[in-house]
Amino acid sequence: MKDYVKEKEAQRKSMKQDAIILGATLIITIILVSIYPGKRGAVITTSWNFFVEMIMILPAVMVLMGLFSVFVPKEMVVKYLGKAAGIKAVFLGILMGSLPTGPLYVAFPIASALLKKGAKISCIIAFLSAWACIKIPQEMVELQFLGPKFMAARLILTIIFVVIMGISIERLIEWSDKKQTNHRR
Amino acid sequence: MNTTAIFINIFAFGCLILALIKDKTKTKQALSVALKSFFHILPTVLSVIIFIALLLGFVPQTQISKVVGEQAGFGGVFIVALLGSFLHIPSLISFPLAASLLKGGASVTSVAVFITTLTMIGVVTLPLEIKELGKKMALLRNGISFVIAITIGIIMGMIL
Question: Are B52 and A46 in contact (CB under 8 A)?
C-alpha cells in the first residue's frame, strides 16, 4: 500500500515536470515565431502534420499497452523464463520481453528476479534487449513514422544481434567466473 | 488516414475483442490503464511535436545533414550513438523525432543508430541496472549494445 502511495506521488511529480516542459516549449516557440514571423506557417503545418500522424495511432497503441500490461503480468514472465533452457530460452526471452510495457528500468527488477531463479544469462539479456527495443506497441509507432521497410529491417537485424549478444555475454560471464574460482583455488 | 494507421487500429481492435472474449473485468482494467497512460504521455508527445516543428522550421537541412547526414561520416554516427545513450526520453516518442531527422536530411544509419541506442542503452539508469544485475552484466550489456547499435545502423544504411 505504501508503495502504491509512493508511486502515485512520483507519477504526479513527473506529470508536473512534463507540463512544465510543455509550457516552456510553447513559450520558446511563441517567442521564436514572433521574432521570425515568416516561419509561422511552416511551424504550424509541421506540428499539425506530426500531431495528426500521432493521434491516429496513439489511442490504439495505448490500448495495446494496457492489454499487455494486464494480460501478461510480471509473475508470468518470471515463471516462464526461470526454467527455460538452451537456444529456446533466448527466443522465449525475446518473445516475453516484447510483450509487457513500461520503460527499461521497470524490467531490471524482473531480470534480477530471473537471475536469482537461475535463468540463463543469454535469456535474461535477450529479455532485456527485447524489452528495450522490440516491444510490439513500440514497433507500431515505428511502422507509422518510419515505414514498413525501415521497421522490418531494424527488427530483423536487432533480433539477430540480440541473440548473438545474449550468447556471447553468457559465455563471457561464465568464462570470467571460472577464471575467478580458479584463482581462488 | 493512411494504410499503416488503419492496420494498427484494426490490430489493436482485434486484440481488444480477443481480450473481451477472454476476460471482461481484466479488459476493463486494461482500458483504464490505457486511458491513464494516454493522458500521461500526451504532454510529452506535444512537447516533442513542437520541438520537431522548430527543428525542421529553424535549422536548415544542410546543417542537419552536415551533423548527422551522409557526409558526416563515422564521426556523425558516433555522436548520434553517444546522444542516444545519454538521452532519457520515452521510446514511443523517439520515432517521430527520428522521422523528422530523416526528413531533415539525416542518414538512415544515424537514425537507426539513434533509435537503437536510445532504447537499448541507458546511461542515466545504469546505476540502477548495476544494483539489480551486477557490474559485470550491466556494463557488458550496455557496452556490447553500443557496438551492436552502430553495426545495425551501418547495415541498414547499406540495405535501405
Answer: yes
Q: Which residues of A touch B3 (CB under 8 A)?
A: none
Rounded Cα–Cα distance for residues B122 and A1 (Å): 29
Q: DSSP states of A19-31 as a string?
A: HHHHHHHHHHHHH
Which three-class secondary structure string do you get for B36-68?
Answer: HHHHHHHHHHHHHHHHHHHHHHHCCHHHHHHHH
Q: What b/e readout covers A97-107, taking b as 16+ CB neighbours within 10 angstroms?
A: bbbbbeebeeb
Summarised one tens digit per residue, pLDDT across range B63-103 is 888 888 888 888 889 999 999 999 888 888 899 999 999 98
CA distance A168 to A141: 30
ipTM: 0.91
A44-84 pLDDT, tens per residue?
999 999 999 999 999 999 999 999 988 888 888 888 888 77
> Number of CB pairs < 8 Å for A and B?
225
Q: Residues of A with CB below 8 A from B90's CB?
A: 103
DSSP-derived secondary structure letter, A121: H
Residue B92's contacts (CB-CB under 8 Å, 6 or more residues apart) are: A61, A137, A138, A141, B41, B45
Please tell me the distance from the alpha carbon of residue A99 to that of residue A93, in angstroms, as a whole number.
10
The minimal CB distance from B141 to the residues A26, A109, A128 is found for A128
How far apart CA B85 and CA B82 sit, in angstroms, is 5
Let me know: does B127 contact A105? Beta carbons within 8 Å: no
